[in-house]
Amino acid sequence: MTAEERQKRIELFLQKAEFASLEELAREVNASISTVRRDLTALEAAGTLKRTHGGARLVAPASDEFLFSARDTQQRVEKEAIGRACAALIQPNQSVIMDAGTTVYHVARHIEDKTPHIVTNSLPVANLFAGSHRLEVVVSGGVIYPRLGVLVGPLAVEAFTKMHADVAIMSGGGLDLDGISNSHGLLIDIQRAMIKAAQKVIFCFDHTKFGRKSVLPLCSLDCVDTIVTDSAAPTELVEQLRAKGIEVVVAPLNGSPS
Amino acid sequence: MTAEERQKRIELFLQKAEFASLEELAREVNASISTVRRDLTALEAAGTLKRTHGGARLVAPASDEFLFSARDTQQRVEKEAIGRACAALIQPNQSVIMDAGTTVYHVARHIEDKTPHIVTNSLPVANLFAGSHRLEVVVSGGVIYPRLGVLVGPLAVEAFTKMHADVAIMSGGGLDLDGISNSHGLLIDIQRAMIKAAQKVIFCFDHTKFGRKSVLPLCSLDCVDTIVTDSAAPTELVEQLRAKGIEVVVAPLNGSPS
DNA sequence: GTAGATTGTGGAAGATTTTGCAAGATTTTT
DNA sequence: AAAAATCTTGCAAAATCTTCCACAATCTAC
């Protein structure tokens, strides 16, 4: 085995494992610890990975597995179901605004076949489509809000203010009869601009958001056309929402896994 | 079997295998190790493949700077060195515009310690900083250009037109005495806006870009304040650039890893 | 057709690179 | 602060590369 081949295999292995000890790597590529050590030094100089005491870890995590999306296990099954159900609401060739947030991210994963026009201020969503030729994805400008990967600030607000879309797919921190609320002041301005820019507004909420009030009010229920949630949502509140003329879609949990 | 036929088979075999040892290849084409060695030397000169100790590997598809992949192998060590040297040119608290392109991406990886303000239209660069609390990263808006992860179009141009920054870190497809050229019309508008927006313009070029002309002219050398390259750059051209008053930084290959 | 020149092939000797190991230095843990 | 683990450095063995040479095949000229 050539040195380069070995280093390629180390890279590959690390991409799956995120972190690996010297011993593991040595076993994986069938070479001595010393050789692996040298390979790691070379790869670090090349910038592929970062050495640590006892092993090495990848420097750039696979970009489509963004911070929250990968580690977020909270209600993942539910959010996945919501994602599928919400994506099914989109008509072909509609232009879609996509909010930031984990639930909306799951919608994005199912939407690729449906529509060619997407506008978003979420880096994870943008990354998801970065490799695709089939869609046109517009990213609003803005300042990166750390950890969430959302673009915020005047540039983002302005981008959505000047825009029009058929549908906006949104998420929020809480939902009750008074309306929808969210926790980040920076996000609220942008979300309001999104809602104004879109003809139809769809909100995605997993059942834990029902009956909750987050820090800041975002909008009243009049702004909302459709709400997508999972089957654990309280029926009472669902009925009350329907009585207000809002279409509520309850996603079944047994969709085929992607 | 003729020499040509043999080399064709070596190519074919490598296309399937990615890597191959001398011994494997000798067996595959039914010739001695010596002969395969000679064939590999010839094929390397022709640019088809790259020799390594103990074998050979396929050379990556030609479109180097414009097919973005964080793990690209082309001149990775050189680019990493350039990245370190270029990052060293940034003063604390300067605002920096960062272009798209693999070379600039390597700069980004070393710039974090400087705590500057960063503006970019490159999704990979944005991702790199998305988890960091220490810097403020502004992303220009725009349409995602697939595979590259660059934001292009009027939204991007506009964002940079309205902006000002201390430094712009740029890259391009080719560099000679006539100026700098690049291969993508969509990028050029944005790059020009970047150059206009910045007080100081730094271009990063690995040595393969020297003396080359890409499809479209981007700007003359008057626009450029500093060029950062690796130690394999042709000295003659480097001297000519210096004679024109451009600061040329040659990055040493053995910088201390971060 | 044959002698001589040219090119391609296989192999061997010496130079270079890579590999694996061990001793001493450094870092992390207890 | 001692102990364990890990890292760096230097070195010898192995593998690989380069260079050179002899031989075979092909080509050229007469």
Summarize the structure in words.
The structure is a homodimer of 258-residue chains. Chain A is of the alpha/beta class. Chain A folds into 2 domains: 3-58, Arc Repressor Mutant, subunit A (Orthogonal Bundle); 67-251, Rossmann fold (3-Layer(aba) Sandwich), CATH 3.40.50. Chain A has helices at 3-17, 22-29, 33-46, 67-71, 76-88, 102-111, 123-129, 154-161, 185-197, 235-243; strands at 19-21, 49-52, 55-58, 95-98, 117-120, 136-139, 142-145, 150-152, 165-171, 174-176, 179-182, 198-204, 216-219, 226-230, 247-251. In chain A, the strands form 4 sheets. A 7-stranded parallel beta sheet of chain A has the order 6-5-4-9-12-14-15, with helices on both faces. Chain A is elongated and about 70 Å long. The model of chain A is unreliable at 62-71 (pLDDT under 50). The interface between A and B is large, with 43 and 44 residues. Strand 6 of chain A pairs antiparallel with strand 7 (142-145) of chain B, so a sheet runs across the interface. The structure holds a DNA duplex (30 and 30 nucleotides).
Question: What is the topology?
Answer:
2 copies of one chain form a homodimer.
Chain A: H1 3-17, E1 19-21, H2 22-29, H3 33-46, E2 49-52, E3 55-58, H4 67-71, H5 76-88, E4 95-98, H6 102-111, E5 117-120, H7 123-129, E6 136-139, E7 142-145, E8 150-152, H8 154-161, E9 165-171, E10 174-176, E11 179-182, H9 185-197, E12 198-204, E13 216-219, E14 226-230, H10 235-243, E15 247-251
Parallel strand pairs in A: 4-5, 4-9, 5-6, 9-12, 12-14, 14-15
Antiparallel strand pairs in A: 1-3, 2-3, 7-8, 10-11, 11-13
Helix pairs in contact in A: 1-3, 2-3, 5-6, 8-9
Chain A binds a DNA duplex (30 and 30 nucleotides) through helix 3.
